[in-house]
Design goal:
The chain is an alpha+beta fold and 1299 residues long. 43% of the residues lie in helices and 18% in strands. The chain is built from 45 helices and 42 strands. It has a 13-stranded mixed sheet, sandwiched between helices. A nine-stranded antiparallel sheet has the order 22-21-31-30-29-28-27-26-25, sandwiched between helices. It has a six-stranded antiparallel sheet with strand order 11-10-12-18-13-16, with no helix packed on it. The chain is globular, with a radius of gyration of 38 Å. The relative contact order is 0.07.
C-alpha cells in the first residue's frame, strides 16, 4: 500500500479524528457514525486464541456485534490512517468496511472537493493530493477529504463551474479531469450483486436463531427423535434455498429494472471540442451528450441544456403518460444544489432533469426549438451528465430496495422477548431436572438428553416461520385484487394506520379537469370613469368572438359596407383564445398531445391545433425560430395562405383570414412561482401593410402586391397563466375588475379550479434584446384577460372510501397543490371535512411570511366578508388555535386592502366540530417558527386540508405527523409524490404499472378503494400474527407441562406421541389458522401493536394456567379411579406406558385444538373461524382423531402411540375433562381475561398517578390540569398523559387539550 505524502501524514496526525458523524442525503437525510481501526498483530492473536478457547463462540459474537469484533481484533486509530471503518447507521445497524486507495492525476483536489472555508482553502493550496482513500457502504462511496480529514459522500456532487463557465456545453477538455472523475465516480453502471449460494448459506446458518434451531435438531437426533428432526432440518434447508432464490430473483428483477443504465451501448459525447462515440459505461459527470429519439433508456442522470425531450418516466414514478422536458437556464444551472432539492421530488427541477433508466420518447435539437444556440452538428437534444451509475436517482431507488430501512415491528421484538422468557423457564426446568434425575441415579447421558430436551420443547423454534405464514396469505389475497407489495413487513403496518393522506388530482378526483368555460374581461372605457368588468361565463370559444364584436367600438358604417362587399366578417382573434392556444408546454407525439392534463383540456377547448413541423422548418416558417406554431383548426399552411392572399388581391377569390401564433420563448411553470408564460408572435396572413385608408389594422384582403409575404411587426405578445392571486399581483390594477376576488371566492367555494390569464405587448424590441429579457421583466405590468374555469369531479368510489375511514376513526387528510378554497370544496364533497355545521378556518399572514415575527390569522372560511368598521368576528387564537371572538375596539376607517386587525380575544365554545385548511406557505412557517406543543402540533391534529403544497412540503408533512406519533399512510399517483410515498409508514401508488418502486404498495386500479382493502388486510394480518404467536407459545407451554408432569414419575411422552403432536396437530393448525381472511368492515378500535400489552400477556398467562391446571387435575385424579394401577416405567429404557401418560396425552390433544380455536379471532378484525374452510376441516379431522383415540381406539393405534387401553369409565373421564377444558378456555378468553386486563390497567394508572414526571421530560401547558377539581382526577389525568408521552403518542395529548 502506498503511503500518503509526508505533509499529508503530518496534517493527519495533528487533526484527524478517531470518529466522525457524516450526513448522508440519500432519499432522506441521515447521520452515520464512522470509527477508524488499523491492524494489530497482538490483538489478532488474542482474538484467535479466545475463539479457540470458546469453541468459536467469540467468533460468532464478533460477527453479531461488528464494533465489538473490531475492538477485539484491531486498534482504534484516526480515520485518516484507518484500514477498516466501522459504520453505524442511524437505525442501529453496524458493519465493517475496508478502506481502499486509488491514484489520481494532478488537479483532482480542486476538481473533486469544493466548499472550503478560507483557512481550509489556503491549506488546500499546499496539500499535495495524489492518493484517494475511500470505502463503500451499501453502495455509497465515502471519500476522505485531504483538507478537512473528513469522509464525504459523492451523492450530491456538482462541478462548481457549471453555469458560470461559457464552455459548459463544450464538454470536458482535460484528459486528467476525465481520468480523475472516472476514478472517483467509477463505471457508469448499476451493478446489482448477484448472491453467492455459499455466502447466503453462511449468513443464514450463522444467524443466532438458526444456530439454536440447528442445536435443537442435533438434540432430537441424539434422542432418536428423527421424525421431527428431519422435518425441521428440511424446513431449514428450504429456508436457505428460499432465501437464495429470493435474493437471486430480486437481483435479477432489479437488474432488469436498471438494465437501460447498464446496457445503453454507445452514446454520442462531446469531448475536447469534438463529438465522438463512447461506451455509455465510460460517461462521467460533466460530459455533454446528445439525446436522440431512439426509444432507448437514458444511461445517466442529466440536465437538458438545449432542445426538448419527451420522456416516459413510469419506471420511477408510475406515471404512464410521457412528460415534456425543456432546457435549464444558466441561472438554474449555476444554483443547482442536489442537497437542498431532490430532482425526483421537485416540480421545478423535474422540468429539465432527465432521469437514468427513463425512456426517450422523442428528442429535438436546438435548431428545431428556436433558441439560436449552435448545436455543432448535433441532431438531437444536448444534455449535461450530472450523476452516473449507482449515484443516479435510479441507483438511489435500487439502494432503498437492496437496503431498506429496518422497520422491525414491535410485536416481532416482543416475540423475541417471549422467547427469552421461555428460555429462562427452560433453563430453570433444566436445572431442576438435572438435580432430580441425578438424585434418582439415572445415567448422565439420559439426564442430559432429558434435561436439554426441555429447551427444545419450551422454546418454539418455528415461531418466526409461523408468523410469516399469515403475512404470506395476505400478500396472495392482495395480488388477486390487483394490489402488489414489494415490502412484506409493511403489510402488518397497514393494520396500524391512524392517518391517511391523499393527493387530490388523479387520486380523490378524476385524472383530468373538465373545462367548464371562461370569463373574459371587458376593458374599462378610457373616456369614462368606468371599470373593467367580466363577461358572463362563456362555454365555447365562438362566444369570445361574439363578445369581442359586441364590444368593438371601431366598427363604422364604411368598414361594415366594405366588409359586406368582399364577403368578409370583420374579426380578430381574441387575446384570451390566443393565450389558451399558446400558453402551455404541450408537445405532439404521433398525433397525440403530450403534457399536463390541464394544458391538454385548455388547448382542446381553444379549438386550435399545433404544428411543430412548421416550427421545425426554421426559416421556412413565418414564425421564424418558434418552438411551436399554433393555428385555428382548418387553416391552410403558410404557402397556401400566400397564394390565396394573391388571388384575393386580384379579386379572383374572396379572402379568408389565416392566423398563426408562434411561441418564441417559454418560461416554464414553477411550483414556487405558480405561473408560466410565453412570448409569442402573431401572424395574420390575410392582412398586409396596406389596409383601408385611415383605419389602422383593418382586416381586409391583401391588395398591396409590394407587401405580399410574411412581414410581421416587431411587436411580441406575452401570455401568462397561473394561480389567480399571483397573476393579479402582476397586472395593472386598472385592468382587473374590482369584483375578481369575490368571483374567485365563489368559484372556489363551489369546487371549481380557476386559472387566471394575462397578457402584455412588447413593442419595437430587437430579437437579441428579447432573448436577454429576464422573467421578471417579461411578467410585469400586464393586462388582465380573465379566468379559465375547470371542474374536477370526484371518482365514484371516493365518497364511500372516505366514509369507511371516517367511521373507523382513521383520520383522512387531503394534500394538494391546488387552491385552498377549491381543496376545501372537494374535501367537503368527498367527506374529508365531515359533520354538519363543521366550521373550517383558513390562515392568512399579517406581516412578512418569511419573518419569524409574522402573525397568522385564522378566519372562518364561511364567514361573510366584513368591512373595516366591524368590531368583532370569529377567529382562532393564533397561539392556542382555539375559537375566539376577535374584538376591535377602534372604528377607524382604513383602506379596503387592510384586514380586520383585532386588539383582544375572548375564548368561546363553537357548536360542532371545527377543522383547519392550511396552505403550504403557512405550514412551512409554522414548522420553522411556531411553538411545537402549543401551535404546530395542534395545527397538525386539527388540519384536514393542506393546499398549495409542494412535493417537499408533502414529505415534510408526513414526517411531522409521524413526529407526533401517528402511523401515517400516503396515497398518490406517484408522479410527484415520490418523497411522501417513500417516507410514509404505508405508501400506496396508484399506477397502471404492475410493480412501481415509487411506493411499497402499487394498485393497478387508479381508485382509492385499495386503501380500505389494505387496511383490512393489514389488521387481519396483524391479528393473525398475534394469534399465531400466542398459539405457538401456549402450545409449547402445554407440551412443557405434560413433560414436566411425567418427569415427576420418571416417564415421558413417547417417540410417536411427540411427532403426532408436532407434525399432525401443531403444523397444520398453525398454517391453516393463518388463512382466515380479514373482516368485511373496519372497526373503530385498532388492534394492539404490542405483544406486551396487558390483554396479550394475561391471555398467554391465563391459558397457560388453565391448561396446566387441567393437566395437573387429570394427572392426579386418574389415580383415584378404581381401575388405576401404579406405573411401571423406566425413562432410561423408553418405557413410558402408564395411565398418567395416557390421560395427559389425550387431554393435551384437545387442548392444542381448543387454544387454536380461541386464538383464531374473528370479528372485528378477521372473519369468523368457521368461514376458514381448511382450518375447520383440519379441526374436524383432528378432533375426530382425538375422540376416536379417547372412545374407540384400536389396539394398533394404542400400541403405536404407547397408550394404555382405558375402560369406559376412564374414557368418559377424559372426555369430561376435555369438555370442561373447552368451556373454561373459551369463557376465560372471551370474558374473564379482558375483564382482568381492564382492572389491572386501571390499577396501573392508579399506581402511576403517584409518580412524578422525570426531569427533562416534555411537559404540555395543560399537564397541570388546574381545571379538574378533585386531586385524584388530576393525578389520573396526568398519569394518562404521561403514558401517552412515553409511548410517543403526542397527538392524543393534543386532542385532549383541544377538547
Amino acid at each position: 500500500m502506498r503511503e500518503p505524502p509526508r505533509e499529508y501524514s503530518r496534517c493527519e496526525a495533528r487533526h484527524a479524528p478517531l470518529e466522525q458523524q457524516v450526513e448522508v442525503d440519500d432519499i432522506e437525510l441521515e447521520v452515520y457514525v464512522l470509527r477508524g481501526f488499523r491492524a494489530s498483530l497482538a490483538r489478532e492473536i488474542l482474538a484467535f486464541t479466545i475463539s479457540l478457547a470458546t469453541l468459536g463462540l467469540a467468533f460468532l459474537v464478533a460477527r453479531w456485534f461488528p464494533l465489538l469484533g473490531a475492538r477485539l481484533r484491531a486498534k482504534q486509530c484516526p480515520l485518516a490512517h484507518a484500514r477498516w471503518v466501522v459504520v453505524e447507521s442511524p437505525h442501529g445497524e453496524t458493519a465493517i468496511a475496508t478502506v481502499h486507495t486509488a491514484q489520481l492525476a494532478p488537479g483532482a483536489l480542486a476538481d473533486i472537493f469544493t466548499g472550503y472555508s478560507e483557512q481550509e482553502d489556503e491549506l488546500a493550496q499546499i496539500v499535495p493530493f495524489s492518493t484517494l482513500r475511500y470505502f463503500h457502504y451499501q453502495h455509497i462511496k465515502f471519500m476522505l477529504n485531504p483538507v478537512t480529514l473528513q469522509f464525504e459522500t459523492i451523492l450530491n456532487w456538482k462541478d462548481a463551474w457549471w453555469g458560470y463557465a461559457s464552455d459548459t456545453t463544450d464538454g470536458i477538455a482535460s484528459a486528467s479531469r476525465i481520468q480523475n472523475r472516472a476514478t472517483v465516480f467509477g463505471v457508469n453502471e448499476i451493478n446489482i450483486p448477484h448472491p453467492n449460494p455459499l455466502y447466503v448459506a453462511i449468513d443464514e446458518i450463522l444467524h443466532p436463531f438458526f444456530i439454536f434451531q440447528v442445536l435443537c435438531c442435533v438434540q432430537w437426533f441424539l434422542d432418536d427423535y428423527a421424525a421431527y428432526g428431519n422435518f425441521v432440518t428440511f424446513i431449514l434447508f428450504v429456508s436457505i434455498v428460499t432465501a437464495y432464490m429470493e435474493s437471486r430473483d430480486n437481483a435479477k428483477r432489479l437488474q432488469e429494472m436498471c438494465g437501460g443504465v447498464d446496457d445503453a451501448g454507445t452514446v454520442r459525447v462531446r469531448r475536447f471540442g469534438n463529438w465522438i462515440q463512447l461506451d455509455a459505461r465510460h460517461l462521467v459527470p460533466g460530459d455533454v451528450i446528445e439525446i436522440t429519439s431512439s426509444e432507448d433508456e437514458l444511461p445517466c442522470d442529466a440536465v437538458l441544456m438545449e432542445g426538448t425531450c419527451i420522456m416516459n418516466e413510469y419506471v420511477l414514478t408510475g406515471e404512464s403518460s410521457p412528460v415534456s422536458k425543456n432546457p435549464i437556464s444558466t441561472e438554474e444551472l449555476a444554483t443547482l444544489n442536489f442537497s437542498e432539492e431532490d430532482p425526483s421530488n421537485s416540480r421545478l427541477m423535474s422540468r429539465w432533469f432527465l432521469f437514468a433508466g427513463t425512456t426517450v420518447v422523442r428528442a429535438l435539437g436546438a435548431e428545431y426549438v428556436g433558441n439560436f444556440q449552435d448545436a455543432s452538428a448535433a441532431h438531437g437534444a444536448i444534455a449535461l451528465v450530472v450523476r452516473t451509475g449507482i449515484n443516479t436517482t435510479m441507483g438511489s431507488l435500487i439502494r432503498s430496495i437492496l437496503y431498506p430501512k429496518p422497520h422491525t415491528l414491535q410485536y416481532i421484538k416482543d416475540s423475541f422477548t417471549y422467547l427469552g422468557v421461555l428460555s429462562v423457564i427452560a433453563t430453570i426446568s433444566v436445572c431442576t431436572t438435572l438435580y432430580r434425575f441425578h438424585k434418582a441415579d439415572y445415567p448422565w447421558d439420559v439426564i442430559l438428553l432429558r434435561s436439554f430436551d426441555l429447551i427444545t420443547i419450551t422454546v418454539p423454534i418455528t415461531l418466526p416461520a409461523t408468523i410469516a405464514v399469515g403475512v404470506g396469505f395476505s400478500i396472495l389475497r392482495l395480488q388477486k385484487m390487483g394490489i402488489f407489495c414489494i415490502s412484506s413487513a409493511k403489510v402488518n403496518i397497514c393494520g396500524q394506520v391512524e392517518v391517511m393522506c391523499f393527493d387530490k388530482t388523479g387520486t380523490l378526483t378524476q385524472e383530468g379537469l373538465d373545462m367548464v368555460g371562461f370569463r373574459c374581461v371587458i376593458p374599462r372605457d378610457e373616456s369614462t370613469t368606468g371599470t373593467a368588468r367580466f363577461t358572463p361565463i362563456l362555454n365555447n370559444v365562438a362566444d369570445a368572438y361574439t363578445a369581442k364584436q359586441d364590444n368593438q367600438d371601431l366598427m363604422s358604417a364604411s368598414i361594415s359596407s366594405l366588409a359586406q362587399m368582399v364577403d368578409l366578417t370583420p374579426m380578430e382573434i381574441p387575446q384570451i383564445v390566443a393565450a389558451m392556444a399558446s400558453c402551455h408546454s404541450l408537445k405532439v407525439l404521433n398525433g397525440e398531445l403530450i403534457g399536463d392534463p390541464v394544458d391538454r383540456k385548455m388547448f382542446a377547448f381553444s379549438e386550435w391545433e399545433i404544428d411543430e413541423a412548421a416550427a421545425a422548418a426554421g426559416g421556412g416558417s413565418p414564425a421564424g425560430f418558434a418552438s411551436i406554431v399554433v393555428r385555428p383548426r382548418g387553416n391552410a399552411d403558410f404557402g397556401q395562405a400566400l397564394r390565396e392572399s394573391v388571388t384575393a388581391g386580384l379579386g379572383l377569390t374572396a379572402p379568408r383570414p389565416y392566423t398563426e401564433v408562434g411561441v418564441i420563448r417559454s418560461f416554464e411553470f414553477g411550483s414556487h412561482l405558480r405561473r408560466m408564460s410565453v412570448i409569442t408572435r402573431r401572424l395574420t396572413f390575410s392582412r398586409t401593410g396596406a389596409g383601408l385608408p385611415g383605419v389602422a389594422g383593418t382586416p381586409v384582403a391583401a391588395v398591396d402586391f409590394a407587401g405580399i409575404g410574411s412581414r410581421p411587426s416587431k411587436e411580441f405578445d406575452v401570455y401568462c397563466k397561473g394561480a389567480p392571486e399571483v397573476i393579479v399581483s402582476l397586472c395593472d390594477p386598472a385592468s382587473v375588475p374590482p369584483d375578481h376576488a369575490s368571483l374567485l371566492r365563489r368559484y372556489a367555494h363551489k369546487g371549481f379550479h380557476v386559472i387566471a390569464i394575462a397578457t402584455k405587448v412588447i413593442p419595437n424590441v430587437s430579437w437579441l434584446k428579447l432573448m436577454r429579457m429576464t422573467r421578471e421583466q417579461v411578467e410585469s405590468n400586464m393586462e388582465f384577460l380573465g379566468f379559465l374555469v375547470f371542474e374536477n369531479k370526484l371518482k365514484p368510489v371516493t365518497k364511500s372510501v372516505v366514509q369507511h375511514l371516517n367511521s373507523a376513526k382513521i383520520y383522512p387528510i387531503m394534500c394538494t397543490g391546488d387552491n385552498v378554497l377549491t381543496a376545501i370544496s372537494v374535501a367537503r364533497e368527498s367527506g374529508i371535512l365531515d359533520g354538519e355545521g363543521c366550521r373550517v378556518f383558513v390562515p392568512r399572514f399579517e406581516g412578512d411570511s418569511r419573518d419569524a415575527d409574522a402573525v397568522i390569522v385564522w378566519e372562518d372560511v364561511d364567514q361573510d366578508e366584513v368591512g373595516s368598521n366591524v368590531t368583532m368576528q370569529l377567529e382562532l387564537d393564533p397561539v392556542t388555535l382555539k375559537p375566539v371572538i376577535a374584538i376591535k375596539t377602534t372604528q377607524d376607517d382604513v383602506d379596503e386592502d387592510h384586514f380586520f386587525i383585532p386588539e383582544r380575544f375572548i375564548e368561546v365554545e363553537v357548536k360542532g366540530e371545527y377543522q383547519l385548511a392550511v396552505t403550504g406557505e403557512v405550514f412551512s412557517w409554522m414548522h420553522e417558527f411556531a411553538d411545537r406543543t402549543t401551535s404546530f402540533y395542534r395545527m397538525l391534529v386539527k388540519a384536514q386540508v393542506f393546499a398549495r403544497m409542494s412535493p417537499e412540503q408533502k414529505k415534510q408533512l408526513v414526517l411531522s405527523l409521524q413526529e407526533i406519533g401517528y402511523c401515517v399512510g400516503f396515497c398518490g399517483d406517484g408522479a410527484n409524490d415520490w418523497g411522501a410515498l417513500q417516507t410514509a409508514d404505508v405508501g400506496v401508488s396508484l399506477s397502471e404499472v404492475e410493480v412501481s418502486v415509487a411506493a411499497p404498495f402499487t394498485s393497478k386500479y387508479s381508485t382509492i378503494a385499495c386503501i380500505v382493502t389494505l387496511i383490512r388486510e393489514g389488521r387481519g394480518a396483524l391479528v393473525t400474527s398475534f394469534g399465531s404467536c400466542k398459539y405457538m407459545i401456549v402450545n409449547s407451554l402445554i407440551q412443557f407441562t405434560s413433560v414436566m408432569l411425567l418427569y415427576t414419575i420418571y416417564s415421558n411422552l413417547s417417540d410417536t406421541q411427540f411427532p403426532y403432536v408436532d407434525l399432525l396437530i401443531t403444523v397444520p393448525v398453525a398454517i391453516f389458522m393463518s388463512e382466515s381472511g380479514p373482516h368485511d368492515l373496519l372497526a373503530i378500535k385498532r388492534p394492539t401493536s404490542s405483544l406486551m400489552s396487558k390483554k396479550v400477556i394475561f391471555s398467554i398467562l391465563g391459558q397457560f394456567l388453565i391448561q396446566t391446571s387441567m393437566q395437573i387435575a387429570i394427572f392426579r385424579s386418574v389415580r383415584d379411579l378404581p381401575f388405576y394401577t401404579p406405573p411401571a416405567v423406566d425413562i432410561s429404557k423408553d418405557a413410558y406406558r402408564c395411565y398418567e401418560s395416557t390421560v395427559v396425552f389425550l387431554l393435551s390433544t384437545y387442548q392444542y385444538l381448543f387454544t387454536a380455536i380461541v386464538y383464531c379471532d374473528g370479528a372485528p378484525y378477521r372473519q369468523d373461524f368457521w368461514r376458514n374452510k381448511r382450518f375447520v376441516l383440519t379441526l374436524a379431522i383432528l378432533l375426530s382423531a382425538s375422540i376416536y383415540l379417547t372412545l374407540f381406539p384400536s389396539e394398533s393405534a394404542l400400541a403405536y402411540l404407547d397408550l394404555i387401553s382405558l375402560p369406559l369409565e376412564g374414557r368418559l373421564f377424559v372426555l369430561l375433562f376435555a369438555a370442561l377444558d373447552l368451556l373454561v378456555t373459551t369463557a376465560a378468553e372471551v370474558w374473564v381475561i379482558p375483564l382482568i386486563s381492564k382492572l389491572v390497567g386501571w390499577a396501573m394508572i392508579e399506581y402511576s398517578s403517584y409518580e412524578e414526571d422525570p426531569e427533562g421530560e416534555v411537559r404540555y401547558p395543560e399537564d397541570n390540569a388546574e381545571w379538574i377539581e378533585s386531586e385524584r382526577g388530576k393525578r389520573h389525568y396526568r398519569a394518562i398523559r404521561r403514558r401517552w408521552r412515553r409511548k410517543g403518542k403526542y397527538f392524543k395529548i393534543v386532542e385532549q387539550d383541544l377538547e
